[in-house]
Each structure stands twice: as C-alpha cells, then as structure tokens.
Amino acid sequence: MNDGNSAREAELVRAHLHRLVEDVEPRPDALPRLLAAARRRRSPRRPLIAALGAVGAAAVAFLVAVVFVPQQPELAPVSVQPNTYLAAPQPGVIASFDVLSGQENSQVATVTGADTTVLAADRDRVYTVVSTADGRRVAEVSARGQRVLPGKVGDSRVLAAGGGRVAYLDGTDVVVVHDQQQHRIPVPAHLRVEDLALAADGRLAVLVTPRDGGQASSVLVLPPDATSLSARVEATSGEACGPVAVAWTGRDVAALQPVDCADDRLRVATFAGDSGRKIGAGTVFRTPPLAPGSARLSTDVLGRFLVSTAGQGQWLVDGSAVRPIPPACTTDGVCAAGPGTFWG
User: Fold this and answer.
1) Boundaries of each FbpC C-terminal regulatory nucleotide binding domain copy (predicted)?
2) 27 lies in a domain?
3) How many domains, in total, are found in the chain?
4) Is residue 55 classed exposed, middle or buried when 0-12, 13-18 and 19+ CB atoms within 10 A define those classes?
5) What is the pLDDT of residues 68-94, one digit of tens each?
6) What burial class does residue 5 get, using C-beta atoms within 10 Å of its C-beta: 0-12 exposed, 13-18 middle, 19+ buried?
7) Which residues of the chain have pLDDT under 50?
8) Does residue 233 lie in a domain region?
9) Which end of the chain, N or C, is more open, meaning fewer C-beta atoms within 10 Å of its C-beta?
10) Rounded Cα gap, residues 119 and 117, in angstroms
C-alpha cells in the first residue's frame, strides 16, 4: 500500500513539472513580438544617429573648405623698387623714377590739392602737403590709402619723415607728429629753419641759418621728443660755409656742404649723430651755386645719397663715385618741378 502511494505521489510531481514547463515555453507569436519590441526600442536612436552623421559630414565639409578655399589677398604695401626715387611730374601726381635712367616706372598716387613739389618718405609711406578747407595739412599716402594728419602747416618749404614721425614748420615752431600726437619745438626769432631730417630712432636734425646772414648755417641734432633747441648737439666742421641740406644715414648725420664759399664744389660730409664730430669728408663734385634749403638730400637702403634740386640738376653719390643723373620726366616729356627723394 505504501508502494502505491509512492507511485501516485511520483505521478503527481511529474504532472506538476509538465505544467511548469508549459508555462515557460514561448507562445507561437512570442518571437515576432520580441523582434517588434526590439525594433521599437531601437527606433528612437535612428534620428540621433542621422543627426550625428549630418553634423559629422558638415564638419568634414567645413574643414575641407578651410583647407581648399583660397585666402583673401592682403593689402600690398606701396611698391618700393630698388634704384628708384620719388618726384612729382605733374601737380598732385607722385611717381616713381629710375635713379640711373630717369625713366618713369609708375605712378604711386594722385593726391587732390597737393603741393607735390614738397615730398618726404618713410619706408613705404609718402608724405606731401595738401590744401584743405582748414588750411594746409600734411597728407600721408600708404597701402591703406590716404589720410590727412592733424595740425596745420604754416611753411610748406620743409617736410621730413622718418621713424614713424613727420616734421614740418608752422609759424616759428617745428612741429613733430607721432602716433597722431604733435609736439612743438620753438625756434628763436633770429634763426631760420632751412631743412629738417628725422632719424629712425626719432632724433631730429635741424638745418638753421641766422636771419641776419652774419654766420654760416649749422646743423642742430635734437633727441626724440625734444621741446626746445637748447638740448642739442651741433654738427659742425668749422668751415666758413655751412651746409645747404641735411639727411640721416643710419645713426649719423649727412650734410651737403660747399667746399669753399667762392666756388661751386660740394660734398656730402658725415657727422657722428651723438657728438656732432665730423667723421667723413665726402667726395667733391661740381654743382651750380646752391643756397641753404635749395636742394634735397636723401639716402637709400644701400647708403647712397641723392642730391636733387628744382631744375638745377641731380646727382647720385655712391661712396667715392658721383654721377649726374637725368631729371625726373615722364614719357610725354613732362618733368618734375621740385626735387625728388629716395624712398624705402
């Protein structure tokens, strides 16, 4: 009897296990339901993946554009060519000329209302005097265009540029403009300014003559931002006849100076900029008689000097070699009325 009960209990346990297995077996549509649920769970990611893909493609396109799109050209500076100088063959027209042949290379600028017989240059910037509704002003010509500097010009005979500065005359003062600011250097009443020259470090050379004519002209060297002629170094050779024009050559001062008061021989003498001591006599050459302020002396990057006058000739001084050069004339035969100047 006990064996029968045991067999019956075993059958009951087996039947119960079958029911449990039936409960965990999948229904016939379980697999399609499972796949559909999986697709529904993945479907929200599709727009995100697509968006990320679009962003990545845009980034790649941007990088390709940055690499392959040509850059915009920068403004080129005013063209400075070797062996060239500036002169004004026509009113308001500034042109570049070959220093050896005198042929016109190109027009640099046209400045309305300019007195282009007065020119100065500082590297690739060119300066002249213009007439405006507010009086005469200094105009700057560069790669960025033209602009008028602050301050009126009282005497347009003299104009100098160098080291980012411009110097000119206004009344009895020498005016120096730097960074749109100007400061004045009073000139004593008994002196007349004949020429100015600015060094790269801001020092100013002033060629003065006594108004009474009793003494020779002299060159006064002033430190940067000087406010009077008293803080000066005088460049003098002790000769009876003083200089007629002045320029800077590196850290030294060059002066176009007569050899003797009685003849027409001149030379470009050199003076130490810090002491005024004469350090170079210069080669002698002949010119027409030149008074202080009647010639312009300028230098180029090779250390050569251009001696230029208004209709009285031009000379290139290259060490011990001096040669006359043709006047600055256009192909139409129009020649500059004022002296020329090296630039660059």
Assistant:
1) 126-176
2) no
3) 1
4) exposed
5) 333 322 333 344 556 899 999 988 899
6) exposed
7) 1, 13, 18-26, 28, 30-31, 34, 43-79
8) yes
9) N
10) 6
